[in-house]
Each structure stands twice: as C-alpha cells, then as structure tokens.
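anyone seen this seq b4? input:
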Amino acid sequence: MTDVPAPERGEPAMDRRLAAILAADIAGYSRLMGEDEAATVRDLKGHQAAVLPLIGTFGGRVIDTAGDGILAEFASVTHATECAIRVQALVAERNRDVPEFRRMRFRIGINIGDVVHDDQRIYGDGINVAARLQGLAAPGGICVSRHVYDQLNRSLKSRFNALGSHRLKNIAQPVEVFAMPADAAGNDEAIADDAGLEQQIRFCKARDGTQLAWSAIGRGPALVKTGNWMTHLEHDLQSPVWRHLYRELAKRFTVIRYDARGNGLSYRDVDEISFDAFVGDLETVVEAAGAQRFVLFGISQGCAISVAYAARHAERVSRLVLYGGYAQGWTRRAMSDAQREEYAAMLTLMRVGWGRDDPAFRQIFTSQFIPGASKEVWEWYNELQRISVSGETAARMFRVHGDVDVTSLLPQVAVPTLVMHARADARVPFDAGRRLAAGIPGARFVPLDGSNHMFLQSDAAFGQFLAHLRSFVAVP
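predicted toks r here
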C-alpha cells in the first residue's frame, strides 16, 4: 500500500479527528498474480466479499480497496483490533482446503493517529504508519503501534509480542511495534498451536567447554535442526525470516534447535571454529536433549554438518532432510578469478563493517540470502546479522564453511535422504544442491521455485517444502 497523500493547498478545509486506522494487503500478491491471474482475481474478490462486511459490523468505515489492499478507520482501537482478529480467523478458515502455495493471507497493521477527512478520503501520517506496520506483519498476522497496544484490554494485549522500536520509511520518529503471531488471530486452535512455541532455553557444554544454547518447541516426533550461520534462539521465533518455518514444524514435531558456537545465545568468544567442532556441537546437543532417534534437518551450511553426523550415527537418524546446501564450500567449487576476488573482499569487509550501526554492508549479504523480500524483511535480516554474531566471528565462520568438503562422506550416508534446493538460489548455486543429492545413495532431489536462499512464508517454495517434507517423513 502506498503512502496516502496530504490534501493539496487551496482545497477546502476538512474536519480533523482521532481515528484507529487499519491497513491490510495480501502477502505475495504479485507472485499469485504471476502464476494465475484469473484465479487470483477470483479468490481476492471472494475474500473481499467475506471480509469487508466485518468492518461495518465492528463499527468501522471502508476508505479504500485499491488493488489487493484495504484501508479502514474505526472510532475505537479495540473494535479495530477485534475486527482484524476476526478477519484473520475468517480468512484462515476460508484457506483450510486451499493448497498452501495458493493461499491468500492478509497482513494487517493498526495505528491510531490524528487524521483529516472528507466524505471519501482520510489523510495523515497516522495512515502511513499503519501501512508500514502492515508491511512488518507476518502473513496471517497483525502488527500494532505502542499507542494502539496501550489502549487494548489485558486479554487482547496477551496475544501480542513486543518487537521493539523500528524506523519506518518516511516516518520521522521510531515506532514501537507489537505483533500477533501469524495464523493465531482469533483462532483458539491456532493459539493452542502457538503455545507449543513457548521455549525454555537450556545450555550444555561442548567437548572444549564452549557453552551452547538449545531449546525444544512443539509436539510430536523429534526433529533436530542442525545449527548454521547466523541464528538466535529468541530472535528467530519473531523474525519473518524464520518464524513461519518453526511454527509449521512445531505443529507436527518436537523441534530441537540450537545456536552454533559463536552465534546467538551460545558462547560468542570461542577459540575453535572448525568443521569438526560444529559436528561435535551437534553431537553434544543431541545427547543433552536425550534424542534417541530423530529426523535430522540441515539448512545451508548445516547440510554438510548433517551429512557428517549421519555418516557417523546412522542408527540415530531416521530421515535426513537437506535444504539449500552443498558438499563443497565456496573455496572448493569451480569459480572465476573475479568471483574469488569478490569472496576475498567480502571476508575483509566482514571483519571491519559487520557490527556498524549502518547496515549498508550487511545488506550485501541480505540481498543474496533473500533477494525477493520486502524492505521491512530486509531490515529484520540485517538486524539478525548484527545481533547474532560479531564481524570477526562471522568472517572466521565464513572461511571455515567455504573450506568444507564432505564429498567423500556422501557415499557413507545410509539413511533415507531428501534434498531440496531453490532453482534460482542467489546464495548457493542450484548445481551445488544437485551434486549433494547425486552423491548420497538413493537420495531424492526436489527443485523448488524461487530465488530466496531462505524461503519466506509467501514464497511458493515454502508450501512446496512443507508438502515434500511431510510426505517424506510420513506425517499428516
């Protein structure tokens, strides 16, 4: 949704009032239109026909429905929020029998502010803040400003999580943001599912004494996610880069995850950063969690570590799932001289520019990991990089992962294996995933759509990933 213009000078004076503003749009709408324009328009009109009457029911007024967006005003903050919750619950119900990759999910932002209005339009910065909050919301979720949060009753406040202050485009002052988890709004069953995301962070010690942070969330058979570069146990559950993945996995598995040494809540100032240490850390966490037999899930750098673990401990791994990974790191793959110079320059810049308040350098990595993300999601990922690992440690890990070569271990993997990789992955070449699968006896290789190395909730790759994972592991 674009910024709402102020009235032109010379126009008649308009009334001014305080209003609660609700802004909504469809996540991934451009992708849906690109895949099937006729079906997307039909589905959008169906959702609008069901949703728009709710605004009047809760005492609101529809201001605009251009494109896939909805803009409405309410006299009551509570009514605006209750309406948003009801909208999300209704849309979730309408999506129940729709394939994951074709589901339309609203993102909703709510703000309260001083507006001027005529009979058809409203104007003011308060509207633009609501639109920016909408952009921060997860698909199926709701974001509100501090002003809105403070006026909600206790039961409504309990459903929101604090996301801290954010600088929003074209808004002078930072805005404190609170978010309702995606797919939980107004849905008792979904709220119960979110309760499974409540985690108790625990610590264990690796063989060299390094303290590792780990947690378990969800319910069901055990799934261990191998630690990879740049994670943070607390931050990831709120991040639009990770939260949708963990929320879905936790519905069917007990997800055991940890911050790799040097990352997140694990000990940061470590002497040893090596591939063997990373494999040993996975072994340590598995023992601390008491996991006897489990699905092992590796992403990106975690794939090679998972391969090494599975080759050593086939009796513990029931299924091996690898996404976006490689057997050979960037120093071991065929590269042009220009590419090698680029990677060497990145190592140097990482050491000196990573921790700066200015995210310009980190944005280089962000645009490779999630090139198809919105600016707001980029800001989340830039911040994840800053808070999860220091520049010096990031550079050391980048080098270690670049030197990885588990090619000789691939034939030793004797567990059922599923390898998935985005066709246009901007970070790890598609061919690296194909070669990884080709080296593991009997492994299934599934190409996914998209260019994001980390799939977002609105990506077609996310729905495809979940469908193939569930089929492979035989969970409903």
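Confidence is low (pLDDT under 50) at residues 186-196. The first helix runs from residue 29 to 35. kinda curious what u guys think
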